[in-house]
Write a structure and sequence with these properties.
about 425 residues; alpha/beta; Urease, subunit C, domain 1; TIM Barrel; 2 domains; four-stranded parallel β-sheet; 15 strands; about 25% strand; binds zinc ion
Length: about 425
């Protein structure tokens, strides 16, 4: 017998960015962890199967965070008046060093994972630290939590303090060890993770690209976040046409599935390459502001057909709940619209789509309740006075803008309640 679960409630999701699909008081049937359909009443063939009845509550797809740093979780909300490169050297590197200690790593990553799941993120692309042992702990913690994730040991072999960089050889060896240990996992899998171009020698980038291609692994890194950083890349990689070209030449730019965080200042050639190589960009609006990087021109990219998901970018971002990133993405798009009224602000459904189905596409059929999508879901509980008064879409918008983990009363990954 197949594993069937029926969930009752109000279902809202986005099939396309333009609008919400809304199913009031309906029954979603999940078979072997995949959505079979949403029906007004339970179809006869599923009568007698287990039912989880959420009454007047909303059920939405789980959030997908395309960019965050687990090793920076304790630092979120600290040092927020610094610019990127100062912030890294004044705060981040010291904390990341602690993750060489397995006991510390296990405890800190457990705090991180508990908050991540509590806030509704059920799939994530995560940077760990440069420590192989520490990263191994993160894999184990996330496996226990039963969410889906790509986890990257952070590769660095120059331009960071000695206590967190490795030799090129050590960095590649540790990466290979983790790939071989975890590549067969179901949900928590390895991803190639050069921190960013400036902390990598050309040899390291080449070695990482070779591993990505050899094991057919996805890639994540940072791209074009800040003007100082871009100038630095130009100085370090004299032969490269632009920032993107540094990754591209090393098989780290779409040769396998790739997500790049930020991409704020891409030139025309880079935009065309991002599109051609079918890259996913992670828009991290909180960190755009906090470390004063600049604002990603989301509307321009969307109009060009570039794929964009959302990232909390803990700890450049200060809040781990992805609904916060949806709100900030909308707010920043309004600021850009004030400067140029041709750039239409994002709608709530567009922001929601980026944080669910668009980001989810990096993982497969994730982030929607269409047939055959994994049943990853959050059940939302709001105040009965609000629930009585407002439409289902209004209630969802209120949760996105003003809600948090206290409003999430159940979470499902692939049809199983966490
Ligand atoms: Zn980042």
């Amino acid at each position: 017998m197949k594993n069937v679960l029926i969930v009752k409630g109000h279902f809202i999701y986005t099939k396309t960015p333009e609008r919400f699909e809304v199913y009031e008081s309906s029954c979603l049937v999940s078979v072997d962890g995949k959505v079979e359909g949403i029906y007004p009443v339970i179809p006869d063939r599923f009568k007698g199967c287990p039912v989880h009845d959420y009454g007047n509550r909303l059920v939405i797809p789980g959030f997908v965070d395309l960019h965050l740093h687990a090793a920076q979780f304790f630092q979120s909300g600290i040092g927020m008046t610094k610019q990127l490169l100062d912030w890294l050297s004044d705060y981040t590197f010291d904390l990341e060093r602690e993750f060489q200690n397995r006991k510390f790593a296990r405890e800190a990553y457990t705090c991180f994972a508990e908050k991540l799941v509590a806030c509704g993120t059920l799939r994530a692309c995560i940077f760990a630290s440069s420590s192989t042992a520490g990263t191994e702990e993160l894999f184990e913690v996330l496996k226990e939590k039963r969410i889906g994730a790509y986890v990257g040991k952070v590769n660095m072999d120059r331009n960071a303090p000695d206590f967190i960089i490795e030799t090129t050889e050590e960095s590649l060896r540790g990466t290979k060890y983790l790939i071989e240990k975890y590549q067969g996992e179901n949900r928590v899998k390895p991803i190639i993770t050069p921190r960013f171009a400036p902390t990598s020698t050309p040899e390291l980038l080449k070695g990482l690209g070779d591993l990505a291609v050899k094991y057919d692994l996805p890639v994540q890194s940072h791209l074009s976040e800040n003007m100082d950083e871009i100038r630095w890349v130009q100085d370090l990689f004299k032969g490269a046409k632009n920032y993107s070209d540094v990754y591209f030449k090393n098989n780290l730019f779409g040769q396998t599935k790739t997500v790049m965080a930020h991409g704020i200042y891409l030139d025309d050639d880079e935009k065309a390459l991002v599109k051609k190589m079918d890259l996913m960009l992670a828009h991290c609006p909180d960190s755009n502001i906090n470390v004063r990087s600049g604002i990603m021109p989301v509307r321009t990219y969307l109009d060009m057909g570039i794929k964009i998901g959302l990232g909390s970018d803990i700890a450049g971002g200060h809040k781990i709940g992805l609904n916060e990133a949806m709100v900030r993405a909308i707010q920043l798009s309004k600021l850009l619209n004030l400067e140029n009224d041709k750039l239409k602000p994002l709608t709530v459904s567009e922001a929601f789509y980026m944080g669910t189905k668009s980001g989810g596409s990096f993982f497969g059929k994730i982030g929607s309740f269409e047939k055959k999508f994994c049943f990853d879901a959050l059940v939302l509980e709001d105040d009965p006075m609000i629930a009585q008064r407002y439409s289902l879409e209004d209630r969802l918008e209120k949760f996105i803008y003003a809600g948090d983990d206290r409003n999430i009363c159940a979470r499902y990954v692939e049809g199983k309640k966490l």
